[in-house]
Amino acid sequence: MTADATPSLLEEPAAGPAKTGPAARGPNARATAYLRYVAGKLGGAVVSLLAVLVTSFFLFRLIPGDPVKYMTGGRQVSAEQLAAYRREFGLDLPLWRQFTDYCGKALTGDLGTSYQFRAPVIDKITEALPNTLLLTGTAFVLYTVLGIVLGTRSAWRHGGLGDRLNTGLALTLYSVPSFWLGLLLIITLSVGVGPIPGLFPTGGMESGGEEGFAYVVDVAHHLVLPVLTLVAVEYGQTLLVTRSALLDEMGADYLTTARAKGLRDDLVRRRHAVPNALLPTVTLIFVNLGRTVAGVILVETVFSWPGLGGLFYQALSVPDLPLVQGLFFVFAAAVIVMNTVADLVYPLLDPRVGR
To answer: How many whole angstroms separate alpha carbon 301 and alpha carbon 317?
Structure first.
């Protein structure tokens, strides 16, 4: 064998297969993985929305009561008149036909016509939505801030008197039914008990007849008790989640290193521990944000607040099927959308998610 026929050991080897493993995972690979993650979450959200659409149609048809008889106002009407009402609202059609009509219209944004208001359901929802957002949005901001601040302080000083008091009060209020607490506040702070005078309205959103700044003050006055009820019941969940997450972080090595570098304890908590511990709290915040659209049905009913929750309770008593179905779909869709947004934001806060 000649030297020319022998491959030189000094020559560069032929190009082999591409390298694999963590070293090969560049920005494009990470972006592709995130896009697959996003597509999976969006697909799951669409399936959930379709499931809610189907559930909302069949679930509320189990409610006893005849909406046609409600529309007659208790008057004596002939069978022909009842049949005419049923034809007008499509209640004489077979169930499968009602279902296909409902799904077809809902996919185009038409949620039907309310039986009792004789108005499009979407118009009634749009009319009541700002009132619900005012109530639940105000409560959401207050109980989120309160829960994070108190949860952080409790975790950082866990085992102390303040931690035990905060945790005990949060667990107690979180276990209290919201309607019961609302009634208790009405009795003590609206009606008045003994030497305690009635300081706040018993219900409603306004007294009527006020304009300008006086109207704003009047609405704020009516907001106090329902907001106080929601904050008292809801802040405990945020406090407990924040406290638990921060306790898990407090034993991490990077906090020990930060202290060893001479950083003040307050600085270690604010700059290092709390940002990493807030990831579970962020998810909870988005879930609660979705619930602000639904409001709290019992609280709005107890305080006669003219929002979506009170409208849902009113529609159930008929039953006003198109309005109940439309509200149920909007409530569920808000939660699903916010959960999906939380899932999409989470990998941006923690790159380990979605790999």
So the answer is: 12
Please tell me the distance from the alpha carbon of residue 244 to that of residue 240, in angstroms, as a whole number.
Answer: 6
Rounded CA separation 268/88 (Å): 67
SS3 call for 252: coil
> Are the C-beta atoms of 165 and 254 separated by less than 8 Å?
no
Q: Which of 63-72, 192-201, 221-230, 279-288 has the lowest mean pLDDT?
A: 63-72
Ranges of H-type helices in 250-320: 253-260, 265-268, 274-277, 279-294, 297-302, 308-316
Closest CA to 299 of 140, 117, 76, 81: 140
Tokens of 138: 């105000």
Buried b / exposed e along 181-195 (16+ C-beta atoms within 10 A): bbeebbeebbeeeee
The pTM of the full predicted model, rounded to 2 decimals, is 0.77
d(CA 253, CA 268): 12
Interval 249-272: pLDDT, tens: 776 777 767 777 777 766 777 666
The closest of 67, 59, 122 to 89, measured between CA atoms, is 67
- Partnered with residue 184 across adjacent β-strands are none
**Helices (H), ranges, 5-90:** 27-59, 67-71, 79-88
What is the per-residue pLDDT across 131-166, written as a single tens digit (0 to 9) for each? 999 998 999 999 999 999 898 888 878 888 888 998
Coil, helix or strand at residue 117 = coil
- Separation between Cα atoms, residue 102 and residue 325, nearest integer Å: 10
Of residues 304 and 210, more confidently modeled: 304
Q: What's the rounded Cα separation, in Å, for the pair 319 and 70? A: 8
Buried b / exposed e across 48-83, counting CB within 10 Å, b at 16+?
bbeebbeebbeebeeeeeebbeebeeeeeeeeeebe
> How far is residue 167 from each of residues 127, 146, 243, measured CA to CA in Å?
39, 13, 9
Task: Indicate if the pLDDT at residue 20 is higher than 60.
Answer: no
